[in-house]
Amino acid sequence: VVGDLSVNVRRAYVAALVVVALLATASFVLLDMLIVAQGKTATIINVAGRQRMLSQRITGLGQSLARQMSSEADISEQLMLRHEISGAIGLLESSHIALVYGDKTRALPGINSTDEIALFYSEPHRVDDRIKEFSKAAYALLEAETAIDAQQKAERLGELGYGDILISLGEVVSHLEQKAQHHGQNVERIHLAMLLATMLILLGEAVLIFRPMEVQLQRSIERIRQSKAELKHASRHDPLTQLCNRQFLREVIRSLEAGTHPSPHAIDSIDLDRFKAVNALHGHAKGDELLIEFAA
Questions:
Q1: If you average pLDDT over every residue of the chain, what do you get?
Q2: pTM, two decimal places
Q3: pLDDT score for 153
Q4: Are 135 and 95 in contact (CB under 8 A)?
Q5: For residues 136-155, average pLDDT
Q6: Cβ neighbours for 165, distance < 8 A, ≥ 6 positions apart
Q7: Does the structure show a pLDDT above 70 at 4?
């Protein structure tokens, strides 16, 4: 009984530990995936937001360059502005390529949904075409040789930079923010689902594992108590007549002698005459019946 109980308890305990371990592992993996996804989403939003900022910076620097050329400012200042414009255009273009096609170094996945493809390549926003058109206008300004040419190209750059491209890039940022918000809502739902799953699994363990294990343990303890009582009774009573035997008599005598106020006591001995003849003439079975009837 004890051996079977030990095996059953061990199996149930190991099963419970395995379930809890699997749940903890699943929660860790899911949480890690959600954190990585959130990090990627934040990176995409930052790059898209920077695109909008770069378009405004390029537009402002281009207008500053046109004014410098009109006022015939120091050539070194013009060269510095051209260098800043060129660097900003390069960053705008490289970031656009990373947003569209992905960039493993910056954990950018690229556009991967029909909504994003439409946003970059279809009306009304055509982000891809407008980025290219804006970059072309900025490079054209850098190639201007006269103040009048620079002023005209700066005006064209301003029309693009403060017009359609600003709206389109703003739509990209808005789309990504909505996507991040939707992802955050999914994260909350998944967290709630994991919490409910955890509670259900713990409840299932309590009902299907630990409660039956407790019942089995109580039954085993009760069987052990009964067995112990039966062994104790068998050690103190004759198995045939169920009368008290010598062991019981010894215990009674020791109990009386150990008392704080011992009292006189006596022992009566009863014997059956010619009992051996009964066994000899009628057999031991009849002799056992006689003893049982006499004990009753």
A1: 84
A2: 0.59
A3: 94
A4: no
A5: 93
A6: 55, 130, 131, 133, 134
A7: no
The alpha carbon of 83 is separated from its chain's Cα centroid by a whole number of angstroms, namely 50
Q: Given a cut of 70, is residue 1 above it in pLDDT?
A: no
Region of 63 on the Ramachandran plot (φ > 0 left; ψ -120 to 50 alpha; else beta): alpha
d(CA 186, CA 100): 25
* Helices (runs of H) and strands (runs of E) counted in the chain: 10, 0
Measured at the CA of 83, the angle between CA 60 and CA 165, to 5 degrees, comes to 40
User: Three-class SS string for 255-282?
Assistant: HHHCCCCCCCCCCCCCCCCCHHHHHHHH
What's the average model confidence in pLDDT over 106-110? 83
Tokens 């009109």, residue located: 70
DSSP string, 56-122: HHHHHHHHHHHHHHHTT--HHHHHHHHHHHHHHHHHHHHHHHHHHH-BGGGTB----SHHHHHHHHS
The Cα–Cα gap between 203 and 4 comes to 25
Contact by Cβ (8 Å): 232, 38: no
Residues 116 and 107: their CA atoms lie apart, in Å, by 17
